[in-house]
Amino acid sequence: MRNLLLLLILNFMISCQKNVIANFDIHIENSDFYDYRQHDLYKIEVYKDNKVFKILEPEEVAFSLDPNIKLDSIQEGEYSFVYESIFGEKIKKKIKVDDSKTYRISINPDLLIKKNKKSIFGNLKNSEAKLVFESRGCFHQKKDSIEMVNRDNKYYIRKKNGSLKPIDKTIWAYFVKTENKIREIPKNGGCTTRDDYIFYHKGKSDTINDGTCEFSIWFSLKDYMKNNKLQ
């Protein structure tokens, strides 16, 4: 009788358990709203409870992964999406599935987690820093610049007319993030267009070269400045 009672209780507990059947709606998209360039991904490794669940790779006729991938019949568990960003950094995104619904998964090829310790904008204190952008190619040549000023723990951008426009910590953080991306541009090149980023601070200069044709960091920054009326 006791065994029968235990069996009934066990069956009741099992019947009360949630039978989770979910879906993944995966979007390959940039984390930076102002980066309009499409960055291709070639592989996403999906893990369930630390074990390989699925490897997402391009179809035979495709050059890269589709920007929108759907997976169905997903059971309850801890899932990880592992991929390599355009900066060569391994990114892991974790998702806990505990409900029968569609989970939107944002995969960001332009994401950069690593922090570069050489950041000039990030360590600016009672001084000024200038970033000069130079781009040269077969049929074009472009030069532009921006200046940031810090006085008494307040940040400013020097506008084209020479006046200083105060900026808040959110805007300052975007400039720091942008510099971080510039400093992490891969060294490999081979592109006929060459972009140079030159930082000037306290009489010293530091140049980062981009010969990849894979990044549009400067143009994203300029769009951000235009949207925030910083020019």
Walk me through the topology:
Elements: H1 2-16, E1 22-28, E2 44-48, E3 51-56, E4 68-74, E5 77-84, E6 90-97, E7 102-107, E8 128-136, E9 141-151, E10 154-158, E11 164-167, H2 169-183, E12 194-201, E13 204-210, H3 217-227
Parallel strand pairs: 1-7
Antiparallel strand pairs: 1-4, 2-3, 2-5, 5-6, 8-9, 8-12, 9-10, 10-11, 12-13
Walk me through what this model shows.
- Helix content is 18%, strand content 39%.
- The longest helix is centred in the first third of the chain and has 15 residues, at 2-16.
- It has helices at residues 2-16, 169-183, 217-227, and strands at residues 22-28, 44-48, 51-56, 68-74, 77-84, 90-97, 102-107, 128-136, 141-151, 154-158, 164-167, 194-201, 204-210.
- The strands form 3 sheets. Strands 11-10-9-8-12-13 form a 6-stranded antiparallel β-sheet, with helices on one face. A 4-stranded antiparallel β-sheet has the order 3-2-5-6, with no helix packed on it.
- The relative contact order is 0.15.
- β12 (194-201) and β13 (204-210) form a beta hairpin.
- The protein is built from 3 helices and 13 strands, in the order αβββββββββββαββα.
- Mean pLDDT is 91; it is low at 12-16.
- The protein is elongated and about 65 Å long.
- By secondary structure, it is α+β, with helices and mostly antiparallel strands.
- It starts with a helix and ends with a helix.
Q: Any low-confidence stretches, pLDDT <50, length ≥5?
A: 12-16
Task: Please state the oligomeric state of the protein chains shown.
Answer: single chain
Specify the helix fraction band. 10-25%
Radius of gyration: 24 Å
